[in-house]
Amino acid sequence: MSNPVLIIGAGVAGMTAAVELADSGIKTILVERQETVGGNALDLYKAFPTDDCFYCFEGNRWRPGIRKCFYRSALTDQPNISLRMNSEIGDISGAPDQFSVKLKVGPGYVNPKKCTMCGLCLEKSEAFRLLSPQCQPQAVVYDPTKADDGAKQAEEECPTKAINLGAQPTEETVQVSDIVIATGYHEMQPVNVDEYNYGKHPNIITQLELAKIIDPIGESGGVPVRPSDGKPAKRVMMVQCVGSRDENYYPYCSKICCIFALKHANILTQERDDVKVSVVYMDIRTYDRYERYYRESRNTGVEFVRGRVSLIEPRKDDTLDITVYDSLLDKYLKFSVDLFVLSSALEPSEGTDKLIETLGIKSTSGFVGMVDPASENEVVVGDHIYACGAALGPAEVPESVTQARAVVSKILQSRK
Amino acid sequence: MDDNKSAVLICTCGKQLQLGFDFLETQVKKMDLATSVDVHDLVCQEEGLPKIAELLKASSGHLVIAACSSQKIQPRIDQYLDSKGLDSSQIQYVNIREHSAWVHKDLDEANQKSVDMIRGTLARSAKSTKRNIEQKEISTHVTVIGGGIAGVESALSLSNLGYEVSLLEITDELGGHVRSLPVVAPTGKSGKEILSSRLDMLQNDNNIIIMTKTRVKYVTGEMGNFTVHYTSEDEEERTLNTSAIVLATGFKEFKPTSMDEYRYGKNPDVITQFELSCMLSEGKLTRPSDDKPIKEVVMIQCVGSRSEDYKKDCSKLCCTFAIDNSLEIIERIPDANVRIVYMDIRVPFENEMIYKESREKGVDYIRGRVSMTWEQDGTTYVRVYDSLLDKYLETPVDLLVLSAAILPPDGITELSETLGYAIEDDGHVKELYGKLRRNETRRRGVVAAGGVTRPQFVFEAVTDAQAGALIIHNELQGGKIESVSRGAVLNADDCVGCSLCAQQCPRGVPLMIEQIEDEEADEEQKILFKATIDTLNCHSCGVCQSLCPSGATQLNFLSNDQLWSEIEATLEDAGPEYPITLCFYCEECSVSTIDIVGTRKMEYPANTRLIPVPCAGRVSIIDLLKAFEHGASTVMIAACEKDRCHIGGTGNEIAQVQVDVARDILNAIGWKGERVDMFRMFSAEPERFTNAVNEMVKRAKELGPTPVHEGTAGKWMEVTE
């Protein structure tokens, strides 16, 4: 009997790999730093290329239907998957095929198998909350910094005794045969990109922040509002390549920000009331069939300005005056906007550099790189080490899923 | 023990659910179809699971569980029962939490709704049948069509997974386009280098048979038993039996002979980007017209791509290819002057670095379009509009390179006619579901890999092929398939041979088989073809059932009888005083949307009754009309978003047709067609469901009592328009 496979990161890529491996009878340990699976997808509202929700991945072989929502994924109840939430990877030692990995497992305040989401604790204390209706495990989470008497009461009265406020973090060491890196990406916080004033004015936000604002599940019910005062945003400007294609930050192209931005531009102009959108860009990179988003946005009146933003001046009424150099007209143009949205670079998620160093594998601009470039086997990043999804570089959901399957294919091939 | 009757287990969710459980218990006890009623506090927990096992044994498999969403608890329950050796296939679930208690403030109304839905589910349970695990053995042979990088990698992966592979290539050599790429970004290796170790492995692999100069004519059969009809060099047709097929026929470069502005095909010094790759690979780089040295090179991007007249979308690879080739030209001819005319330079991720490198090495980028190409005194000239300078530029060129669009390969439309996969608007093979199921096609057992679905870089095609091999492995399971027989079962005696199921099955499962042995009937009565369905290949949507005119094909977990009796029982108390909206919801996006509405505790009117179906396409016109017959005031179907049906993309379109026809019928018989409607939803926008329900409840109120309520249904009346 071989050792199990360790999957680091339970975003779309990691979950797909875990479920496929489990279906093939291989034991997996799926480690996730956050308190819910789903990774970035949980916050992204609508997906491209299908324009429905982001919250789904494939189902199991033993459950019909071609896809399942996160909340229906029953990851805590799958026999071959051992899900470690709130956990981080420590030291890795041993040889390929028999790695020894230390896991730092965070305090398990709420037992996800016992929580039924009945809502009792949510009424007792603000320390408990439901991260998202789509969260998986389907359980509340507890924030110890908000501990109060209500929380203690909830601990006592919880019908399934799922709450343990005194839980402590633990450490354990697992023996694994293969390691799958599915650590995804992180949206750069452009605080250091001085010209955009990010972090200095509430109405200057990133695309991921915009996604949360226009999500119907959010506070404003999907109405685009200005963070400064909650009033509807009528004029939105987006600027592309913030930190990408920039020698001072990341020289690479982040690949999906144009699609991301235009998806948002189309939602704003077509599905929300009376919003005007301008996009400042260098090249619009809507590869392949994503060109549809560009066509649609031009047809619905999104304004495109090729050039760079040169000046941002906040006004007293919380609007922003923006000066843009238009390289096609060779002119400076002035705009007044309610929301200024930065398409910020996608960078490797935190800890990727350490993982690369510990495992002694290659790096591609900070992301995980393939072991043998001439093979063009992108998912094979070391001996018994694989990677999928945005851990390999900015990737969309379909790519991540295909890569996850390729990883599983490779692992099964190696075990035949 | 009466095997029509079921035990009922009601969960209070740790006594946290706002429902009158005493009322529920009393009401359900009165129901004829209930043998016992138990109210339990924690059905899904350690203390509840043994209770389920106990009840299941006592009621010989017939059990109704009224609790929270089955989407959450069913996997756990199934696993527990499986570990105890108990069959859970007949358990029926009613969601009294997300679909009732959490969304209705009025306790009495929520109670009544829960009772009605339990009654309906009991009726469904009464007619449920046990589903067995079935086994079948199939051959472990897979056919890969196309010997480019994707096909080669597919063959190697499948062989590694234990399958015998026939690799069919139409030309006389393997390697496809990659063979002729001088340099592949971002690794900088040549196509031949990337291929060589793979080709060595192929040659040494005894499980792979390579068949070059082989053309596939057509394919018959189904997953597990396909027959590939092909011709070899001698043009003689042969056949090959196989269990699954990988379609890896790559792509075709657009030949822009019809675009007069470039004079391609007329001037030999005007070539496509791939033709330039071939020249560079062969090592010869001179002017094609006269073999003179090359100095001035102009490349034009988006020739045929991003164009309303040819290909609407971006071809994705051409910018990278152009930059690769321009660097290669500068490498070989240092004083060459390369200019690239573009609209947007599209180089993903690290390919941006070679773009930068090329600019540093002197490749000149002109944002604009070429408006004209002409020859004068043996020299070729182009006229370029530079949109940044707003100026026209005329320049002589030695080589004009067109980055022509990447198009689907020849022959895939013809092959789709017998292989049954769907074709995208742009002519490529259509993926089963663009977000999560890129490798799979509509047809089960047919996987697409590489450029045949969309333009792909080499590494992407390799990944695609590896993933595709996994999909096939999942389907064939090493030749020994063992699965719960859950799906459509066809009774051949009832089949009238209409072939609707075969035409409309979203996954192409039913086959029409010629009836050779049927001799007793006289010629005119004889049915020449009848359908057959392999239940283990079925995706259990029920589209065939809703379309079948004779009831010959039915889902073994939701027969017509089952659904009709559930409709009748659910609507037992429906009447004009309390108009009911009946909602059929698919157990894919719709159940999620309705569950999320519950989790978010979004309220909607309680005079709604919900009935689950595997796919909206399962609901037939008769099902819709039955709902009215039994007293519903309005009827709706909740379905997945357009083109996002979980079962191959067409189940919800079939449902739409059923709704349209039901509406026509209602109008024709003097009811009001607006009483029936269909709504599409997904869980990121839960208000789609509440809006839909509110609309149908409003219509129920406005349209008033139905002829069934008034007792005039079925009686002759003058229809007033």
State the total count of DSSP E strands of chain A: 24
Rounded to an integer in angstroms, the radius of gyration calculated over CA atoms of chain B is 32 Å
Instruction: Report the sheet-strand fraction of chain B.
Output: 15-25%
Number of strands of chain B: 31
Overall CATH architecture of the largest domain in chain A: 3-Layer(bba) Sandwich
* Average pLDDT over all residues of chain A: 93
The count of domains of chain A is 2
Question: Count of DSSP helices of chain B?
Answer: 20
Distance between the termini of chain B: 54 Å
User: Mean pLDDT of chain B, nearest integer?
Assistant: 93
CATH homology superfamily of the largest domain in chain A = FAD/NAD(P)-binding domain
Second rung of CATH, namely the architecture of the largest domain in chain B: 3-Layer(bba) Sandwich
Structural class of chain A: alpha/beta
Q: What name is given to the CATH topology of the largest domain in chain A?
A: FAD/NAD(P)-binding domain
Q: Give the overall form of chain A.
A: globular
Architecture overview:
- The complex is a heterodimer of chains A (416) and B (721).
- Chain A has helices at residues 12-23, 120-124, 149-157, 207-214, 257-271, 291-299, 352-359, 397-415, and strands at residues 5-8, 28-31, 56-57, 68-69, 81-84, 87-95, 98-105, 128-129, 141-142, 170-176, 178-181, 185-187, 204-206, 235-242, 276-281, 303-314, 320-326, 331-337, 339-344, 346-348, 363-364, 367-368, 380-382, 385-387.
- By secondary structure, chain A is α/β, with parallel strands linked by helices.
- Chain A folds into 2 domains: 5-106 and 169-184 and 349-415, FAD/NAD(P)-binding domain (3-Layer(bba) Sandwich); 189-345, FAD/NAD(P)-binding domain (3-Layer(bba) Sandwich), CATH 3.50.50.60.
- Chain A is globular and about 70 Å long.
- The two termini of chain A are 13 Å apart.
- The model of chain A has no long low-confidence stretch (mean pLDDT 93).
- With 721 residues, chain B is α/β, with parallel strands linked by helices.
- Chain B folds into 4 domains: 1-131, Rossmann fold, CATH 3.40.50; 141-251 and 408-480, FAD/NAD(P)-binding domain (3-Layer(bba) Sandwich); 260-406, FAD/NAD(P)-binding domain (3-Layer(bba) Sandwich); 485-555, Alpha-Beta Plaits (2-Layer Sandwich).
- Chain B contains 20 helices and 31 strands.
- In chain B, the strands form 9 sheets. In chain B, strands 14-20-15-16-17-18-19 form a 7-stranded mixed sheet. In chain B, strands 8-7-6-12-22 form a 5-stranded parallel sheet, covered by helices on one side. A 4-stranded parallel sheet of chain B has the order 2-1-3-4.
- In chain B, helix 6 links the parallel strand 6 and strand 7 (164-168).
- In chain B, helix 6 (149-160) runs parallel beside helix 7 (191-203), helix 9 (318-332) packs parallel to helix 10 and helix 17 crosses helix 18 (651-668).
- The longest helix of chain B has 20 residues, at 107-126.
- The model of chain B has no long low-confidence stretch (mean pLDDT 93).
- Chains A and B meet through strand 3, helix 6 and helix 8 of A and helix 3, helix 6, helix 7, helix 10 and helix 12 of B.
